[in-house]
Specification:
Layout: E1 2-9, H1 12-21, H2 23-31, E2 35-42, E3 49-56, H3 59-68, E4 78-85
Antiparallel strand pairs: 1-3, 1-4, 2-3
């Protein structure tokens, strides 16, 4: 399983528009073969932060998605996102 998680920062007055600009792409990604989850959302504490979370079955569908994703162009001041590989998932509680 592939997990992509982190955040990007933008100007506070542009954050909500940037999140909204990704809505159509997020909806398409969730329908894409191999996408287990994808979310781009406004942070509940930091008005400049956009949280990014993706889960993919493996690299093949992720690579295929990147070919057709066509993300919107939004201003980003800083991005801190990492890709993690895991072979196991467990219930947390």
């Amino acid at each position: 399983m592939i997990i992509i998680a982190g955040y990007t920062l933008t100007e506070a007055d542009k954050r909500d528009a940037a999140v909204a600009a990704h809505a159509e792409m997020v909806a398409r990604a969730r329908q894409h073969e191999g996408c287990l989850d994808l979310s781009i959302s406004a942070d509940s504490v930091d008005p400049e932060r956009i949280n990014i979370f993706e889960r993919w079955r493996d690299h093949q569908p992720l690579d295929a998605w990147r070919e057709v994703a066509n993300p919107p162009k939004v201003e980003r001041r800083e991005t801190r996102v990492k890709l993690y590989r895991t072979d196991k998932a467990e219930e947390p509680f």
